[in-house]
Amino acid sequence: MASLSLPRVLQQRKTSLDLEREHFEKFQSISISKAVNPTETPVKEKHVRSAIIGTYQEKSGAIFWMFILRQPLQENRIVAWKFCHVLHKVLREGHPRVIPDSQRHKGKLEDMGKMWQHLREGYGRLIHLYIRLLITKLEFHNRNPGLPGNLQVTNEELEAIGENDINIYFQMSVEMFDYMDDILNLQRAVFGSLDLSKSNSMTPCGQCRLAPLIPCIQDASQLYDYCVKILFKLHGALPADTLKGHRDRFSKQFQDLKTFYNTIKHMQYFKHLITIPALPENPPNFLIQSELRTYVTPVILLPQEESIEHDVTVDSLIDTSDTSSVPGDHLDAARNGSISPDALAERDSLIDHLHHENGRQREELHRLLSEHQRIVGEMRHHIRELESLVTSKSNELEHQKQLSEDLGKQHADIVLKHHELEEKNKSLDEKFQKLKEVYSKLREEHISLIRKKADVDKQLGGIKIAQEQAQRRTQEAEQRLEELLQGQATAEQEAQRVAQARSDLDDVRKQYDQAKTENLALIAKIDFISSEKAVAEGDLHDLLAQKEELDLRINQLVSEIERIRSQGKKDLDALNYELIINCITSSETMIQNASSAIEIPAISALTCTPDYLETLVNPLIQSLSDLETAYKSYETDAKEGKLLIRSLIRATFSLSIYLIHAKSTSNTSTDISLGDKLTDECKLLASQASTMLSSIKEKSPSTLDKISLVKNQINSISSMANTLIKASGNVDIIGDLVENELQSMDKAIEEAASRIQEMLNKSRAGDSGLKLEVNGKILDSCTELMKCIRKLVKKSRLLQTEIVAQGKGTASATEFYKRNHQWSEGLISAAKAIAMGANFLLEAADKVVSGDGKFEQLVVASQGIAASTAQLVVASRVKADRNSPNLAGLSETSREVTQATAGVVATAKSCGQLVEENDDLDMSGLSLHQAKRLEMEAQVRVLELEQALETERRRLAALRRHHYQMAGENEP
Asked: Are 184 and 258 contacting, i.e. CB atoms less than 8 angstroms apart?
């Protein structure tokens, strides 16, 4: 029996998964090594596609980085350049996990970029720029994880990433600008490195450099589209001045991107690889929001790749043309022209696996697309429901507002009716009292008449006949008195008839005439009173019924009024609270606007004196104290809301004004650190004011403490402003300095003119020939220049006097110089420079006349005087009236100074040429050897002079920098 080898028996057999994993890793290693091979040709798409498919199979970028880092990235420049191209493609089109997995390798990328940076020509600089672009891309996706590697998102997804937050959009736009800058820098470097005679777009070496620009074009197109949309959003929410830097930066990138696209369009290599979008002639105008509707998104078109499922071949998966990277038996089989069965089986299994994986990925893609469409449909339906709900809510709100207005009108009508009913009830009460008094009087008279009637009945009891007649007459009178029920006038007529009947009775029996008359009168009066009483009682009953009905109606109206009054009180309290909240919100907006104004660079031109700022402190502290008192009252009684609103508006307005003036005061500080500190204190005051308003809105128990903090911060800023007053004490003497420096300038110019005249007289007396001619021309031109400068100074003094007279008002000239100390310092600086230049011109002219100087010194001195006079003219023109005749005269004199300066320069140069022509070397007696030696010495002298010239230029630049630094430090 044959014995088996123990290691072979114990060796664990590999499963199909292990074999498949091994085949996959081998295939990835081969594809990546071929993609970044050292041949100077463009990367083949099939190798990059294999690496991208590998990331989807692994669902990560680990396998890609494992094999890519094994390549000679730091030894071969072509490998490093192709690595950047492959990494860019994998980051754009690979699995979403590739970007997070690549974040940990940023350090290696930075080291690689620093290493290739030292190779400043050719691929070294290109690799460095491409590495920086890739690092920027990784950092951009790290800060914005919602954006995929290919940067393709919809408008809704872009808004979700921005969260409708202006701050996020602002930061995202800056990051996109940085990303775009790196792309444009890389493309400029690529085109700049092309040698059109050797490496154009149709040669392999040229295509190797140009191929990575395709993913750069894709990224740039998406970034341009998002920048346009985000900038329109920012301009819709922020002031235009705040976004001026964004607009300038976008305009520059727009022109560069357009140049980039135009260059690509004319290259034959890109015509069948990518379709470049057309950009408009001018960038969008973000100040006009309507242009967003006419904006067209640029679209990049790539050629349609054939389906991998049907066209995958052995050559597209394993390139047998390059066998240098195929190890072992495969290499031998390739050399022998045949393929082993294991290789065929491996190839077939790999093809089947790729087919299966491709089908699975396609099904997963279709499933994701259908799920995405379903979610989008649901979201659109939900959005439509929300829009309809918002519309209904808006209608309900309008209806509620209309009901509120109707209730207000009804409340006013009810109040008016209530007043009318009260007036009517009052008149009825007065009428009732009058009727009651009349009824009482009638009742008393009726009782007294009844008593008198009883007495009369006793007197007439014995006379029956007279009584019967009287009864008969009484019946007639009663019949007549019944007619008196219709009115008082008829009753009086019946009374007269009764009296006439009584006179008839007197004729029958004279004894009882008087008694009968009285009896009839009494009976008539009693009947009249009874009828009047019945009528009065009926009216009284009617009035009492009306009174009860009115009382019932009044009670109903009173209850309705009380209900409406209670409801109106509730509504009024709600409106008062809403008004207070709106007032606080407006106050917060006012403080935020003031705080934002502090940040605007344009406010640095505003100035305010610390003295005026101090006058704003006490009213501001008083308004805060009033606010504190009003808030205490509002806590105890909600009816004090009006007082709180009035105090809040006054305090917020005073705070905003104080913040602006405090920032303006910091601009006057000559100590930059002190001014910055005062600005920081202003920002802290704005923050504390916002916190105070929030506490008032929330009715926080610590509101009074917040108000106290604001007061303390105001006192702190006030004390710092007082320090600023002490720090700017040198400004008080600025007026005297201006006058002194101008007088010194006049004196220096007069002395220089007189000295030049003396030198001219001295030269004419002692010199002759060429020297006299040169000295005469030099001194004449200097004299003419000094005359023009003296005339300029006089014109400047006239214009300065006019400026001071127009601007000082009721203040003195010294106070005007103090108030405009920066302008005064400019005059002082110009005057000093003119005086110094006059002295330097005098010294240069003296040295040239005496033979110890150079003509170049005159040129420098005259040009320095011209520059100083120009500074004086500009300083005077700043505050002068444009139509001032003195300003016109000053400008004309300034041109004369410029012409005189040009005359001095021309004279110096011509005199220098005269002297050089006089000193020309006599070469008539030179031999060939002597001429050659002198020529060599002249060349050496020329080189020495050129070196000396370069040294002096560097020294001049250093002196100018030192002069500017000292001038800045010495400014008060």
From this structure: no
Question: In angstroms, rounded to a whole number, what is the distance separating the alpha carbons of residues 775 and 392?
Answer: 98
Residue 936: is its pLDDT beyond 50? Answer: yes
Cα(529)–Cα(36) distance, rounded to whole angstroms?
136
- Phi/psi of residue 275, nearest 5 degrees: -105, 115
Mean pLDDT for 328-342 is: 42
Q: At residue 373, does pLDDT exceed 80?
A: no
Backbone angles phi, psi at 301, to 5 degrees: -115, 130
Of the candidates 676, 677, 685, which has an alpha carbon nearest to the alpha carbon of residue 595? 685
Per-residue DSSP letter, 75? T
CA dist 420 to 545, 688, 847, 943, Å?
Answer: 20, 55, 112, 116
In angstroms, the CA 291 to CA 655 distance is 39
Contacts of 41 (CB under 8 A, 6+ apart): 204, 205, 207, 208
DSSP secondary structure letter of residue 15: P
Q: How remote is the C-alpha of 844 from its chain's centroid?
A: 57
Cβ neighbors of 460 (< 8 A, separation 6 or more) are 466, 467, 470, 512, 515, 516, 519
Instruction: Tell me the sheet residues that pair with 839.
Output: none
Distance CA 232, CA 290 (A): 10
| Rounded CA separation 568/758 (Å) | 100
Pick from 141, 153, 302: nearest CA to 229: 153
pLDDT band of residue 218 (cuts 50, 70, 90) is very high
Distance CA 504, CA 499 (A): 9
Query: Between helices 123-143 and 77-93, what is the axis angle to 10°?
Result: 20
For the chain, the residue count is 972
Q: How far apart are CA 802 and CA 791, in angstroms?
A: 17
Considering 317-331, 648-662, 850-864, 940-954, the range whose residues carry the highest mean pLDDT is 648-662
The rounded Cα 514 to chain-centroid distance in angstroms is 115
Other residues' Cβ atoms within 10 Å of the Cβ of residue 267: 17
- What's the distance, CA 175 to chain centroid? 18
Instruction: Give the helix/strand (H/E) hosting 497.
Output: helix 488-508
Task: Give φ, ψ of 925 to 5 degrees.
Answer: -100, 15
The alpha carbon of residue 626 and the mean position of all alpha carbons in its chain are separated, in whole angstroms, by 33
Residue-level pLDDT at 308: 36
**Angle of CA points 724, 671, 242, to nearest 5°:** 100
Q: Max alpha carbon distance in the chain (Å)?
A: 201
Separation between Cα atoms, residue 783 and residue 792, nearest integer Å: 14
Name the residue with higher pLDDT: 918 or 190. Answer: 190
- Which residues touch 181 (CB under 8 Å, ≥6 apart)? 253
Q: Is residue 818 within 8 Å of 734, Cβ to Cβ? A: yes
How many angstroms separate the CA atoms of 826 and 281, rounded?
A: 45
Q: Residue 353: what pLDDT?
A: 73
Q: How far is CA 33 from CA 51, 72, 206, 467, 713, in A?
A: 10, 10, 21, 159, 68
Under the banding of pLDDT at 50, 70 and 90, the label for residue 317 is very low
Are 610 and 721 spatial neighbours (Cβ–Cβ below 8 Å)?
yes
Q: What is the pLDDT of residues 488-520, one digit of tens each?
A: 555 455 556 656 655 655 565 666 666 666 666
d(CA 81, CA 100): 22
The mean pLDDT of 425-444, rounded to a whole number, is 70
Helices (H) and strands (E) in the chain, counts: 32, 0
Does residue 63 surpass a pLDDT of 50?
yes
Does residue 778 contact residue 847 with C-beta atoms inside 8 Å?
Answer: no
pLDDT tens, residue by residue, 722-741 = 776 655 444 445 555 556 66
**Cα(583)–Cα(651) distance, integer angstroms:** 12
The number of angstroms, rounded, from the C-alpha of 825 to the middle of its chain's C-alpha atoms is 36
